[in-house]
Amino acid sequence: MQRRPTLEDVATRAGVSRALVSIVMRDAPGASEQTRDRVRRAADELGYRPDHRARRLRQLRTKLIGVTFTAGQEFHADLVDGVYVAAEELGYDVVLSAITPHRDEARALRTLIDEQCEGLVLIGPQAPARRLAELATRVPVVVLARRIRGVDAVRSDDVVGALLGAEHLIELGHHRIVYLDGGRAPGAAERLRGCRRAADAAGVALEVRSGGLTEREGAAAATAMLAESELPTAVFAFNDRCALGVIDVLIRAGVPVPQQVSVLGFDDSPLAGLAHVDLTTVRQDALGLAASAVQRLAGRLDDPDGPCGTVDVVREPALVVRGSTGAPRVSACGNGSSK
User: Fold this and answer.
1) Which tens digits make up the pLDDT trace of 84-109?
2) 137 Cβ neighbours under 8 A, 6+ residues apart
3) Domains of the chain by start residue, with CATH
C-alpha cells in the first residue's frame, strides 16, 4: 500500500520549511505568491491532499488520553503513574479504564472510546494482534509492554531481562533452576527465550514449569515442588507476584531463602524492596516506558500529518540484586542442597 504524501514530503520537494507549507495549505498570511505557487506545484506533483478530518480533530480537541490496565498488577500501576506524570507535562488529561475478572478488555476499550479519548495507551493488552491493529486504524494507539506488528509499541527487552536474571543464578553456581513460565502473558515468550539462551550457553539444564502472574499461582507451584523428593536450588519466577507466592510457601514450610532455595522475580515492584521481602528481581523502567509511550502518542495527536509508520521503542531492564538469591548450599559429599 502506497504511503500517503505528507506536509514534510511537500516541503522537501518545494525546498521550503514544513511550517511554510502549512501556511500555504491553510491559505494563511505569511508566504509570497511565488512561494505559494511553488508549494502548490510540489503538492500536485506528489498527489498531496490536505487531511480535512485531521484538521477538524485539531480544532475539536478533548486532550484526553485513554489508558487500559489490569487491576491488581503492580507493574501496571507503576506504568499508570508514569503515564499521569508524562501526560500532565504535555498538557493532556488521563482517563483510566480497568480490566478486572468481571470487566473484560473489550468493555474497557469501549468506555474510553465513548469518553472521546483522542488516543489510547494500552498496557499489556491481551487482545489478538489483528484486532489491535484494526483498532489503530480508527484511533491512535500505543501499546505498552507488548510488541504488536503494525502498532506503535513501547516495551522492555524481556529477552535481555530474563537473560540477566538467569545468568545471575548461574554465576552464583546454581545448576538446578526452575523457571516458572508466564503462559500467554505479554512478554512471556521472550522471557522464556532469554532464560533458555542463558542456560544453553552455560550448559545448565533449565526446568520450565507452569507459573503464572499471581501470588496464588506462585504458591501452587512451590507447593508442588515441596511434594517432590528434591527441591531445585533456584526458582526464577515470571514476575514479582509469582515470586512472592513461592517465597511465602517455602518459608512457611521451613525452607530458608536463599540458603536452601534462591528466588528471583521480574518487575521490581514496590513490595520487592521491602526489608522482609528483599527480592532479587529484574527492574523495568516504568517511568521511562510510560514517558516514551505518552510522548509518541502526543506527537501523533499534535501532528496528524507527521511521518507515517509505526515505532517499536525498546528499553533495557536492569538486574537488582537483593537478599533472596545466593550461592547454593553444598553438602559434605559435594552435591547441592536437597530437601
Assistant:
1) 999 999 999 999 999 999 999 999 99
2) none
3) 7-50 (1.10.260.40), 64-156+286-316 (3.40.50.2300), 158-284 (3.40.50.2300)
